Amino acid sequence: MQLTYRGVSYDYNPPTVELASTSSQEHDWRFRNHHNSVTLQPNANLTWRGVKYDNNPTSDDAIKEKSRWLILRRQQKQIDRADSMSLRLAEELGLG
């Protein structure tokens, strides 16, 4: 195939891909799950905008504690929102 890029002509021969024939019982190749390999990052003490952090994975206990705090914070926000709506309703009705 003859191609031109910025006035320079060159020949391009695309690689050919051979597919193995599949039987009717196998899944189509487009629907197979491709698992990405796990890449381990080296331990490093990093700084971003003056804030130091590291890229080490946290322990299971730290993850559980963080998820617990996230759930508690979300529940508190829901309670605060309900209280705010109740106060607004009371003001509109002239009760507050």
Give the proportion of residues in helices: 25-40%
Number of alpha- plus pi-helical segments: 1
Oligomer: single chain
> What's the rounded overall pLDDT mean?
80
Strand order, main sheet: write it out. Answer: 1-2
The profile of the biggest β sheet is:
2 strands, antiparallel
**Share of residues in strands:** 15-25%
The global form is: elongated
Terminus-to-terminus distance: 80 Å
- Count of extended strands: 4
The topology string of helices and strands comes to EEEEH
Structural class: alpha+beta
Which consecutive residue ranges, at least 5 long each, have pLDDT under 50? Answer: none
Would you give an account of this structure?
The chain is an alpha+beta fold. It has a domain at 60-96. It is built from 1 helix and 4 strands; from the N terminus they run ββββα. The chain has one helix spanning 60-93, and strands spanning 2-5, 8-11, 45-48, 51-54. It has a two-stranded antiparallel ribbon with strand order 1-2. A two-stranded antiparallel ribbon has the order 3-4. The radius of gyration is 30 Å and the shape is elongated. InterPro entries: DUF4278.
